[in-house]
Amino acid sequence: MRLPKLPAPPLPAALRPKPPRPGTANGPVGRIDAAREAGTTAVDWVDERTSLSGGMRWLMFRKVPKGTNWFYTLGSATMFAFLSQAVTGVFLAMYYDPSPTHAYESARYITNEAFLGAFVRGMHKWGSSMMLILIFLHMGRTFFFGAYKYPRELNWVIGVVLLVLTLMMALTGYLLPFDQRSYWASVVAVNINGSGPLVGPYLADFLRAGPDFTATTLSRFYAIHMLLIPGAIAALIGAHLYLVAKLGTTAPPWLKAEPESDLRTTEA
Description:
The protein has helices at about 30-50, 50-60, 75-95, 105-110, 115-145, 155-175, 180-195, 200-210, 215-245, 260-265. By secondary structure, the chain is an all-alpha fold. The chain has a domain at about 75-245: Cytochrome Bc1 Complex, Chain C (Up-down Bundle), CATH 1.20.810. The longest helix is centred in the C-terminal third of the chain and has 33 residues, at about 215-245.
């Protein structure tokens, strides 16, 4: 009588062959594949603990109305101009000295002697004008396209506040070179603010840090320009983008909504 063949006992875990790494079935893993796998692992590790991918998908992948054109990029261009101002401003602050005796000399040093100083200062100077132009064009597009209407009224109010803060940032930054032109132009601008009703004199005293232009005025303008206004703008831009992603964008006014096919069939 033939006995049945018994299966071989399983090998211990230490003697079992290791499974191949992902992607090594067709050969060894290259450096590029290893780097890509390491990056994917790091991103997955962060996403598992923060769940940021869901928020990014909600922000980036959304419906876009028919007829969207280049006019809709003015908001993104304005935000890019603000980011450029923030980055160049950080590098300028590394060399700038907000004191009446050293402000002009530090600005001269940045322009004439610092490495790429003239380039960075030029980007900051002309970038401020570009940001003003872009934000006015963006507000004009929003108004003429009727994007301020229900349910986007709050987003319009935030945009108006951002416009005012941008103008304030341009005003406070104009004094920082502290030459004759910037000094007297700032004196005229603050006097104009002081002529406003009710809050005008208080606003002028706040900007001057007192009744007259003194050494503290330059420090006040520098603190407002570098800390107060950029922080407020960054927070409001975050709220602005959230509302844009939540409420969507408005279609151009020259496009009319087409009735659905079943409604056309019923009317026929």
